[in-house]
């Protein structure tokens, strides 16, 4: 959102705009998957928008985040341009990472986005390292690691908890508990509780309604301020419900692990509707139109952008500047 556009809305309205942008971005991308413009599919973030919006609204522009395989919402909420993000997902050279990162590895270091990550829990040590660097530098930056409930038993996440607690690092661990690790329920995967995992390391931990963006923002701000002042790490467990598939592959496979009744109940608490009820409907309608214009322009930009030349496939990969063999080109 531009500064001028931001000034015309209240904090609550800006939260809704971010959430609406994420929701419609994901819906646009599902269509692009079906048309073949996005290869391989995506992990939709629909239903969890309040978490990304609330957390990132409480951060400073130069704070860091690390994301997950379900990371479009985090990247957009931290300020990435929707057009560049959509170009990235469609594999175009105008994308955030010139089409090389795709859906699960988008990054923009200039915005503090240290990367989405397809490896479960892998962002936790990266955020912990960024927090350590901030503490060493003496600045007040906070790092946030987003991960799902399926990551709380990963050794690297627990190791990150340990180092963050030992060194009192300014890092927030944000667990997005949507009830499922792919198709495995959290009840069948996690012994004890999510907050209990971090509490065992002496890390302050709180469970929040992740469908309420303002509650998420308030909790994030409280613990981020504490971290900036030397108070050390915290864990926020944000509960929500994933409305769509774990991966768009499910749209073709028709795998069933949730009942229609369960999904309907989960959808009944829609984070967008919760936030929209907090301000006049005419404001919501104006925001909806603005978001639609932004995303239609993003789609047009992405699809009009050039695809990469295979001859450049090894660029940015080797420090030596190694190139493909002679004769390899986009026409090969």
Question: How would you sum up this structure in a few lines?
Answer:
The chain is an alpha/beta fold and 332 residues long.
Q: Secondary structure elements and their pairing?
A:
Layout: H1 3-7, H2 11-35, H3 49-57, E1 64-66, H4 72-77, H5 82-89, H6 123-137, E2 143-148, H7 155-167, E3 171-177, E4 180-181, E5 184-185, H8 194-199, E6 205-209, H9 213-228, E7 234-239, H10 250-253, H11 260-267, H12 271-276, H13 281-304
Parallel strand pairs: 1-2, 2-3, 3-7, 6-7
Antiparallel strand pairs: 4-5
Helix pairs in contact: 2-3, 2-13, 3-9, 5-13, 6-7
Structure description:
- The protein is an alpha/beta fold.
- The protein contains 13 helices and 7 strands.
- A 5-stranded parallel beta sheet has the order 1-2-3-7-6, with helices on both faces. A two-stranded antiparallel sheet has the order 4-5.
- Helix 7 links the parallel strand 2 and strand 3.
- Helix 2 packs parallel to helix 13, helix 5 packs across helix 13 and helix 6 packs parallel to helix 7.
Largest sheet: 5 strands, parallel
Distance between the termini: 41 Å
Helix content: 40-55%
Shape: globular
Annotation keywords:
alpha/beta, 7 strands, 13 helices, two-stranded antiparallel ribbon, 332 residues, 5-stranded parallel β-sheet
């Amino acid at each position: 959102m531009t500064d001028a556009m931001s000034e015309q809305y209240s904090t609550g309205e800006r939260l809704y705009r971010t959430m609406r942008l994420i929701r419609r971005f994901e819906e646009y991308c599902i269509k692009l998957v079906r048309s073949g413009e996005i290869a391989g599919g995506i992990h939709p973030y629909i239903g969890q928008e309040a978490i990304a919006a609330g957390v990132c609204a409480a951060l400073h522009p130069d704070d860091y985040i690390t994301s997950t395989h379900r990371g479009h919402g985090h990247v957009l909420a931290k300020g990435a341009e929707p057009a560049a993000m959509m170009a990235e997902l469609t594999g175009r050279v105008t994308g955030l990472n010139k089409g090389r990162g795709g859906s699960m590895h988008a990054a923009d270091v200039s915005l503090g986005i240290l990367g989405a990550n397809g490896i479960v829990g892998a962002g936790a040590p990266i955020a912990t390292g960024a927090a350590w660097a901030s503490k060493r530098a003496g600045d007040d930056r906070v790092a946030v690691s987003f991960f799902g409930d399926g990551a709380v038993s990963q050794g690297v996440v627990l190791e990150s908890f340990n180092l963050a607690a030992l060194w009192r690092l300014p890092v927030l661990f944000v667990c997005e508990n949507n009830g499922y690790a792919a198709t495995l329920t959290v009840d069948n995967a996690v012994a004890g509780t999510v907050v209990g995992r971090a509490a065992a390391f002496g890390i302050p931990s709180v469970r929040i309604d992740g469908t309420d963006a303002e509650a998420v923002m308030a909790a994030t701000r409280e613990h981020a301020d504490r971290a900036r002042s030397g108070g050390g790490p915290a864990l926020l467990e944000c509960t929500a419900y994933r409305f769509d598939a774990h991966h768009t592959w499910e749209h073709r496979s028709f795998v069933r692990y949730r009942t229609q009744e369960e999904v309907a109940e989960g959808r009944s608490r829609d984070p967008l509707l919760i936030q929209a009820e907090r301000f006049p409907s005419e404001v919501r309608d104006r925001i909806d139109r603005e978001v639609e214009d932004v995303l239609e322009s993003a789609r047009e930009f992405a699809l009009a952008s050039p695809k990469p030349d295979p001859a450049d496939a090894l660029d940015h990969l080797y420090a030596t500047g190694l190139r493909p063999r002679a004769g390899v080109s986009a026409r090969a």
